[in-house]
Amino acid sequence: MNAPIRENDPTELDRFKRDIDLVDYAERQGYQVRKEGKRGDWHQLEKDGEVLIVTRKADHQVYLNTGDDRDKGSVIDFAKTRGGNGHGLNLGQVRQQLREYLHDGPAPVRVYAAPVEVSRLNALPVGDPDQERQQQEDRKTRLIAEVLGVNKELTDRSYLHGRGITDSTIDSPAFQGRIFTAQQNEHKNTAFPLYNEQGLASVEQKNEHYKNLLPLPKNGIWVSHPTQGKDTPVERVVVSESAIDSLSHYQLKHAQDPRNTLYVATSGTPTEAQVALIQRVIDKQEPKEIVLANDRDAGGRQFNMNYMNELHPARPLVPVADQEAYKEASRPVEWHATSDKYHTALKVSYRHDSAESGLAHVQQLTERVARMNGTQEAGPTIELEVQRSTERETVLRLSVAKADTAQLEVISQELYRQREQLRPEQERGQEAFIRVDYPQAKDWNRELELTAQGLSAEQIRAQAQLDEQQRAAERDQREQQRQAEYARSAAMERAEQETRRQYDERQRQQRADDNSPESQAERLAEDRRFNQAMMGAAVADAGRQDEEKSFRSYRTAQEAAAHTAQFVHARDAGLVLLKEYINDNPPPTGRKVDEAEQAELRDQARFAARPAAADLPAAPAEVKVATWQIDELEPNTTGRAEAWKEILDNSGYSMRTSEIRSTVDEQGIRRAEFDMTYRNDQPDIAIIHAIVTNTNARAEAGREQYADVRVAESEADQAARQAAAEVAPIQPHNRDRSLDVADKPPLESTANAPGSEKQVIIKVDEPAITPGERGQAEAVQAAVIGSGAKAGDIQSTTATDGIRHSEMKVTYRTDQPELSRISHTLDAVAEQPGSHVVEHSSDRAERRELSKSQEVATPARNTEITR
């Protein structure tokens, strides 16, 4: 009999961690697994733009939020943070929720890689930490040198001028040696170096519609010199999100308040390392005031709330053992702001001497929230919940919609004043040490732009409202498009699944019918008719219609068309799979087709006779340009365009690609493009045509790998390329991948040349045969040998779906007297359903031409064979 569950049993929490599959639990909360390790040792989960990595630690799983390094832990932390519809749960509520999860049934068993034995680890050579640090330092030095070069200087001011920054600002002593020009090929970007205590840490590059931060740890900050010059006593430190905002703030504000000021920027969202660096700057410079000059939006307010908690007046150094350390002031109250897609939350922690004191703090904050909620016309906007309360600590969580983040900022400012009052008198700092300075527009550079246009403060605020309305409308439009795309993809997936189910059901029924004795006898009769047709192919009329021929077939025409469609690609539909992969992912296998479309695909699989050479342009075709436009799917990501360009560059086809051009919009989405050049007189133009049409068609169909990928070109170029593709020697459905753009001599140069040996490969796909039974591959081999050619051994494999895949090598010489019979036999095999002749187009054309010449030269011999 199981022991009763104690309400606060500490072993229960360990059991939750050990027994609950964190991945399955997260999936039930709406997260989706996007990637996972080959050995199952990690999973990447996503929901509403949030990315989590789940790994294993000891006997349980843990997670990490890639966008917030403070959001991590076990399933307990996951439920505590994300429960309650994103508002969080207290520990009692977490226990109740996880108990209910376990009672719903066991989670799926997830196999993880076995831990490495300690003895094996001890036997491995230990890496040299100094060497690893040196390698990291060398990599950082190389990346920075590639951007800044040897002579670091500002040679191009066009970007700064375009942002409204004047030469007098740029030439200020504050910014000397803090802005450079990055010269890479023909591109010139404005570079802002980031520093830490060890020196140069990274570089941010900016240009019109472009921004880039080197792929290095974000542990440095951009910092100016004092406005009165190096080594002058600093009175004020201004903290902003970007160096451009710092320059704009200086240009707008410094003349009215010329105190000696140091500017600091974080190049976006501040990390813990950057906040610690800013505090070290304060410790060293000992300013009288900190000005938070971040954007007037939810993100900027969140940064300010956390800065008010983390930044303090200069800390004194005190001896600790044989060293010195900064003396931290007591923290009777702390807070931390976080946000998700729709909400901002403020976690407040009080430390007190007794439960009664904690209750007083809670009561005080509750009354303040009630007063603020009472002033809102639409009703309460702030939710307050006590998450934990002990004798020494009380933790609360406040949450608002993102649009109401300013209300939490007001509360954090009051908490800042309250903390100074609760500290011992000797630890209290000056009351107005941290001040918030918001721009009248969204950010300081936008205010600088509007000010330069001659707008008044009131007009700037009105324009800022219009800007925000426009951004909101654009966000709503993108969200609607995203939801519509998801809905369309889901509908297509359901339709494909149903079509696949119906197709599989028909296949199972067909296989059951085909195993009858009557069907086997019919196939034997078809074999005999096939052999007779092959042996008589040398005297048959090459132009007669398909229905006049009788060949060995699949068990049914439907089965033949279905399996033929697996390896025959319709030329005009452009079903080329781009070297069998897309962005390091296997391409879709394609949707199932109905009987009518199967018949259409089968007809399109016939070899089309090549039009006369007179139809081709005599002069070399001009170079055409198609522009590939590829957008990233998430903010602050990159690499998609590079992956597509690599696919095209490594495909082996004759097109060429240019360098990538890219921009980044206000939402952080990178939009990239590059040009693809090609010529319509290249032998593989049909393949290039198929790649372009296939890419656009799959993107319009909502395929996930092709989302936000477009190939733009003029209608005239598209029509010319299609016309050239129809008469190209290499077609998507008849090419040998090993011979794609191979340099074969033209037909004219080989027509009168001495005989040479040619090689083709014949592939046959047919239902699996029983041991001792003669299949279609054996019939083809006998027919080829009977025609005078040499056929190698049959190499066969049988797939899990019951299809036998066979392959044989065939050789012949162009000066053989049996060439005409060999040629007709190979053509007959190529037209046989289930058989595929892999042969270079120039070899095939030469074979047919010589065969026709041989027939004209030896009519008597043909007559003799006919008898």
TrEMBL record:
Segments of this protein annotated with the region Disordered: 466-523, 720-757, 829-867
Biased composition (Basic and acidic residues): 468-482, 491-523, 733-746, 837-852
Comp. bias (Polar residues): 853-867
Gene3D superfamilies: 3.40.1360.10
Biased composition, class Low complexity, residue ranges: 720-731
The name this protein goes by in its record: Toprim domain-containing protein
